[in-house]
């Protein structure tokens, strides 16, 4: 029963233990201590056609319990990696993109095409992709990052928090490098990315940047963005609309009503049908359940008023949905994935189409129905 | 013991000379001449281990009063035997008897008069319970057997004596329940104990090391306890206990890994509470040997798993530390082991000093001096606390030792190293046996019945008949 281990085996084991202790410089080790974290990265295309990379580096505090500081660095190169290498020449230590929160792309990059500029992220597995937001900046990305701070926050932190909170408000769809990569490779579906801009000291939301294939092709304002996000079938914690309705009340205050459809059950019907002559029709129905969040005035909403409100809101939103779809079609951005449906269910039709041209000919029939299910705790 | 035999002489002087020579004229051997019915006689005893008052009252005074009676009638108050073999007599002397020789008689009397200096059967210090019996084993095996018999008044409880040690014989007893203990198991234990051939045995540690299945394993393969109730529970479950005279520890076999995570308190508490406590212990088991390794792997290979704020906090605390994480961790772990060992050996009056030196000087100053980081102190402190969560001291030491190889594996290969290390440990645990029983039962081999009393404790009515009984496991 008792196993007798030979002396040689023990000696070998001890030798392995001791020698492994001396292996201090291991190949893929990266000490947390030596890392210099690039939290936010911005890309632009400089006037001479080179790539301009701007990086926000977070510097850990020298003394404990102090807050971190940040440095902004810029470099130029023929492609992303060469720009990064240039950057490494300039700044201290080893820049790592481990905790990269977002990639800010200047409008110039977006117009020139995303794929070539995101290639390095997909090719090198050590670059994080799953939680990295892709954001389009009006003007230059470097201008935005060089602000360094917005209020008390570092610019990188500010942008991430801003994007996250706006995703919760359903202004932006949740797009990361991963999902963008999928859409870039998919001929049947396009995407929209957050579109932000610098205004004075502040960073403000412009809305959504629409993409056709990999090129920037148009934009939506924040109000339209919310509707688009809902039409896409996504939903944040909140999705608010403030609309003017006429209930026939005498006082003017009660013209505006704010509703919230976030976190409520929505029903979306997306149907792509092909008629005999090959023309494509899309029916997009959206049933929203809404809570009245603000409706100032003396008159409370009665049961029969609610019917009217429902109807009025449905009409308004349907009309807006039509304009959103129009914008999207104008931008040639197949954000709903009509092409994907054709590929899947009407493949012969798809093969005959030149989608980048024929997408604009698709007949959209959007319809939004609003039902108010709650008017809050006051009568 | 010497193998020579020597029958007693008829002359008292010859006998006493022989015994004196055999004991190398030790000074505590006392002789006293007492004649009986005109014949010369002599009482011999070792004053250091006999009760001299007992001899006075029950041997010497009867002689002066009852010269007319028969000799055996004098000693009715004492246990005695008649011997002819002098070396037997010498062994008797060494065990606390006194000898009486009478001129012209070929036999001599061995009268049992041992001194009794017994510790009280108080609760063992390192195995205290909140509720339940508060007695414990002491250094007298007879008393220990008494304590067990008090708990189990059953004819099935069987005690078997063995004598171990060639020059210094010691009594060992094997205790088990005839009806529940697996006869195979009893045979194995018996065979292993009889195989021990040492000159002397001082403690149960000797027996433990000489009977283990795998002496190279760092895991203890015999349960040891100083609690009679703990022992009795195991006995009733079919385990076998080994007691050694002169040692208050009972060894219980066959051990399983999870038996070291059990305390008698587990069965005195309500089962929900016990299950929660067991769960905490399980967390303690995991953190006790993996936390430093996980920390090292994280900061040297996988910093990307840290949340951003934590990333900066840890990075900030690491900036001033000149060593790689492994050295940093080793340093602190070794300091902690030093403090622990020192605290163990230090008299309690000086013990406070260790607290101050350990807590204040090393804990805080070592960070200010830039030798280790605060996060590492947190990690090591957590590890230390969790290792003391394990009820058994031996298992706790084993687990504490295990983290060093894991730390090295983590510093070499990161999380992959840890998973390889854990794989090796679990392979070893699954392969290990204790007296022919799988050590990692009831997990490997998997027994759903046994699981009821492993990670959680089901109500007694649900587990009563199905604990990890060696008999049913077979």
Automatic annotation (TrEMBL), chain A:
Gene3D superfamilies: Nutrient germinant receptor protein C, domain 3 (3.30.300.210)
GO cellular component, one term: membrane
Annotated GO biological process: spore germination
InterPro entries registered for this protein in UniProt: GerAC_N (IPR057336), Spore_GerAC-like (IPR008844), Spore_GerAC-like_C (IPR046953), Spore_GerAC_C_sf (IPR038501)
Domain Spore germination protein N-terminal residue range list: 28-197
Protein family membership: Belongs to the GerABKC lipoprotein family.
Superkingdom of source: Bacteria
Domain Spore germination GerAC-like C-terminal residues, every copy: 207-376
Protein name: Germination protein, Ger(X)C family
Species this protein is from: Paenibacillus jilunlii
Compartments it resides in: Membrane
Membrane-related topology note: Lipid-anchor
UniProt entry keywords in alphabetical sequence: Germination, Lipoprotein, Membrane, Palmitate, Signal
From TrEMBL, chain B:
Keywords from the UniProt entry: Membrane, Transmembrane, Transmembrane helix
Superkingdom, taxonomy of origin: Bacteria
Cited InterPro entries: Spore_Ger (IPR004995), UPF0353/GerABKA_families (IPR050768)
Transmembrane stretches, start-end: 279-301, 360-390, 402-427
Pfam families to which the protein is assigned, alphabetical: GerA (PF03323)
Flavoprotein found in the keyword field: no
GO biological process: spore germination
One GO cellular component term: membrane
Family the entry assigns: Belongs to the GerABKA family.
Protein name: Spore germination protein KA
């Amino acid at each position: 029963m008792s196993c007798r281990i030979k002396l040689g085996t023990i000696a070998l084991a001890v030798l392995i233990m001791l020698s492994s202790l001396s292996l201090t410089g291991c190949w893929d080790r990266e000490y947390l201590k030596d890392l210099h974290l690039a939290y936010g990265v911005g890309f632009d295309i400089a006037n001479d056609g080179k790539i301009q990379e701007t990086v926000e580096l977070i510097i850990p505090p020298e003394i404990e319990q102090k807050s971190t500081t940040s440095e902004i660095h810029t470099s130029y190169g023929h492609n992303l990696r060469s720009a990064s290498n240039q950057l490494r020449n300039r700044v201290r230590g080893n820049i790592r993109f481990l905790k990269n929160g977002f990639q800010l792309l200047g409008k110039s990059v977006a117009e020139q095409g995303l794929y070539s500029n995101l290639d390095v992220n997909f090719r090198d597995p050590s670059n994080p992709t799953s939680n990295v937001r892709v954001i389009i900046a009006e003007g230059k990305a470097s201008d935005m990052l060089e602000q360094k701070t917005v209020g008390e926050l570092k610019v990188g932190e500010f942008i991430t928090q801003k994007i996250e909170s706006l995703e919760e408000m359903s202004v932006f769809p949740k797009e990361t490098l991963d999902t963008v990569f999928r859409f870039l490779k998919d001929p049947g579906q396009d995407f929209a990315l957050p579109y932000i801009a610098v205004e004075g000291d502040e960073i403000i939301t412009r809305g959504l940047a629409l993409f056709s294939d990999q090129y920037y092709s148009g934009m939506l304002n924040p109000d339209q963005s919310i509707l688009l996000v809902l039409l896409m079938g996504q939903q944040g914690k909140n999705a608010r609309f403030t609309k003017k309705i006429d209930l026939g009340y005498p006082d003017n205050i009660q013209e505006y009503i704010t509703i919230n459809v976030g976190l409520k059950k929505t029903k979306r019907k997306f149907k792509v049908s092909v008629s005999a002559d090959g023309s494509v029709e899309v029916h997009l129905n959206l049933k929203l359940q809404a809570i009245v969040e603000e409706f100032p005035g003396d008159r409370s909403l009665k049961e029969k008023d609610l019917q009217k409100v429902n109807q009025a809101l449905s009409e308004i939103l349907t009309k807006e949905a039509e304009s959103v779809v129009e914008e999207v079609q104008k931008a040639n951005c197949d954000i709903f994935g009509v092409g994907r449906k054709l590929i899947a269910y009407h493949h012969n039709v798809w093969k005959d189409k030149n989608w980048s041209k024929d997408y604009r000919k698709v007949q959209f029939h959007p319809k939004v129905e609003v039902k108010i299910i709650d008017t809050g705790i006051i009568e | 013991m010497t193998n020579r035999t020597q029958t007693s002489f008829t002359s008292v002087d010859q006998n006493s000379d022989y015994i004196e020579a055999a004991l190398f004229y030790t000074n505590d051997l006392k002789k006293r001449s007492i004649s009986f019915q005109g014949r010369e006689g002599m009482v011999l005893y070792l004053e250091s281990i006999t009760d001299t008052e007992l001899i006075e009252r029950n041997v010497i005074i009867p002689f002066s009063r009852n010269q007319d009676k028969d000799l055996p009638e004098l000693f009715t108050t004492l246990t005695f035997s008649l011997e002819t073999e002098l070396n037997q007599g010498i062994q008797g002397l060494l065990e606390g008897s006194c000898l009486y020789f009478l001129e012209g008689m070929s036999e001599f009397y061995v009268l049992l008069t041992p001194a009794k200096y017994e510790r009280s059967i108080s609760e063992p210090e390192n195995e205290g319970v909140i509720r339940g019996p508060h007695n414990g084993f002491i250094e007298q095996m007879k008393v220990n057997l008494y304590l067990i018999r008090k708990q189990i008044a059953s004819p099935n409880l069987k005690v078997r004596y063995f004598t171990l040690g060639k020059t210094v014989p010691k009594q060992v007893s094997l205790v088990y329940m005839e009806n529940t203990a697996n006869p195979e198991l009893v045979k194995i234990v018996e065979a292993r104990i009889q195989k021990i051939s040492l000159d002397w045995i001082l403690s149960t540690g000797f027996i433990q090391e000489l009977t283990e299945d795998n002496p190279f394993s760092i895991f203890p393969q015999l349960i040891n306890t100083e609690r009679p109730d703990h022992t009795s529970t195991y006995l009733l479950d079919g385990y076998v206990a080994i007691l050694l005279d002169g040692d208050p520890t009972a060894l219980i076999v066959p051990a399983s890994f999870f038996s070291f995570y059990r305390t008698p308190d587990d069965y005195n508490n309500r089962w929900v509470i016990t299950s929660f406590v067991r769960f905490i212990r399980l967390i303690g088991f995991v953190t006790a040997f993996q936390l430093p390794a996980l920390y090292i792997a994280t900061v040297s290979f996988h910093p990307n798993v840290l949340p951003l704020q934590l990333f900066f906090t840890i990075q900030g605390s690491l900036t001033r530390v000149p060593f790689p994480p492994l050295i940093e961790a080793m340093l602190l772990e070794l300091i902690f082991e030093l403090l622990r060992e020192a605290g163990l050996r230090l008299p309690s009056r000086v013990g406070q000093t260790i607290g101050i030196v350990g807590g204040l000087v090393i804990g805080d100053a070592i960070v200010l001096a830039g030798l280790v980081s605060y996060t590492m102190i947190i990690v090591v402190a957590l590890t230390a606390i969790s290792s003391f969560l394990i009820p058994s001291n031996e298992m706790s030491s084993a687990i504490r030792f295990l983290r060093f190889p894991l730390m090295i594996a983590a510093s070499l290969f990161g999380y992959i190293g840890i998973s390889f290390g854990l794989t090796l440990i679990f392979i070893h645990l699954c392969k290990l046996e204790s007296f022919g029983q799988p050590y990692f039962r009831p997990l490997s081999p998997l027994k759903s019945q046994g699981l009821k009393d492993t990670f959680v404790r089901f109500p007694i009515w649900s587990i009563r008949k199905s604990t990890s009984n060696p008999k049913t496991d077979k």
